[in-house]
Amino acid sequence: MPELVSYLREALLAGDVETTRDSNHGNAAAFAEGDEGYLFGLAPLKTWTLAQVLGVMAERVGIDPDPERSTGTDVIDPYKTVAALDRMRDRLRVAARRRERVLVASGHPAGIVEVHLAVVAALRAAGCEILTPAAGVPFARPGRYDGREFPLALRYVGGVAMAAERGIALWHTHSPDGTRAILDELEAQGAAMPDLVFADHGFAGAAAAAGLDVVSFADSNDPALFVGEAEGRVAVTVPIDDNVQPHLYQPISAYLLEGIVA
Fold it and tell me: 0.90 exceeded by the pTM?
C-alpha cells in the first residue's frame, strides 16, 4: 500500500489534485439543488443539503467538509482511494471466478478509460461475457447534459461503451442515457441484465438507478456516485482524479487486476 499511495500522490491521481475547491463546492451545491447535469441519472432518495453532501465527500473522498469555504485547493485522500480500490478488486475477482456478464462503460475517453480497457481484456480472458448491446444507437440529445450542439451515439472501443459524435470523435459525457439505451435493448432482446457494471459518470449512475451491481470511479467534484454509495445503491465508488494522461492509470489497472491476470 505505501508504494501505491506514493504513486497516487506523484501522478496527481490523489493527494493534491488539480481539481479545485471551487469546482468541488460548486458541483456539490448543484447536486444538492437537484441540477440534472450533476445527478448522473441517479436522483437521491432524499433531499441532501450542501453541508450533508460535503460531509459525504469528506468521509469518502477526503475533501474539506466546510460549506463556507468555496475557493482555494482541495485534496483526495490517497488512503481512501486505495481502500476503495481494494473493494473494487475484490468484486472483480468474484466476477472473474463466476464468469459473470459484465458491462463496461466510460464517459472519459481520454482519461481513466485506460483502466476500463484493461478490465475488459482481463475479464474476457477469465471467461466473462463482456456485453456490447445497442452499438451505434443515438442516446444523448444536444445540450441536455454536456452543452453540445449535436447528438451522441454509443460506440464500443475495446469492449468499452463510450459516447461518439457522428462516429468520428469520442466525447466526455455525464449523460445517463447511454446506459438507458443499453438496458432498453437488452430488455427488448429478452436478454439477462449484467451481473456487474464497471463504469463512471452517467453510465454508472443510470445502472445503479436500475438496481444493478455497480462499481465506479469518480472525481472529487462528482458527488452523485458517492452519495449513491452512501445510500447503498452503488457498491463501490473509487475517489480519484479521473482525467489525467491515460498512461498514468496503468499502475491502477495492475493493482485492480492482481489475481485475475496471470
Answer: yes
Q: Is 103 exposed, middle or buried (0-12, 13-18, 19+ CB in 10 A)?
A: buried
d(CA 81, CA 151): 34
Per-residue pLDDT reduced to its tens digit, 210-239: 999 999 999 999 999 999 999 999 999 999
> Distance (Å, rounded) from C-alpha 231 to C-alpha 206?
15
CA–CA separation, 22 vs 66, rounded Å?
A: 12
Q: Are 194 and 101 in contact (CB under 8 A)?
A: yes
Q: Which residue has the cell 463501490?
A: 236
Buried/exposed code over 179-213 (b: 16+ C-beta within 10 A; e: otherwise): bbbbbebbeeeeeebbbbbbbbbbbbbbbbbbebb
Of 146, 6, 30, the C-alpha closest to 81 is 6
- Is 127 in contact with 97 (CB distance < 8 Å)? no
Pairing state of beta strands 214-218 and 236-239? parallel
Of the chain, the percentage scoring pLDDT greater than 90 comes to 92
Check if the beta carbon of residue 60 is closer than 8 Å to that of residue 77. no
| Edge-first strand listing for the sheet containing 214-218 | 129-130, 101-104, 196-200, 214-218, 236-239
User: Which residue is associated with the grid cell 472473474?
Assistant: 96
Q: What pLDDT is attached to residue 143? A: 79
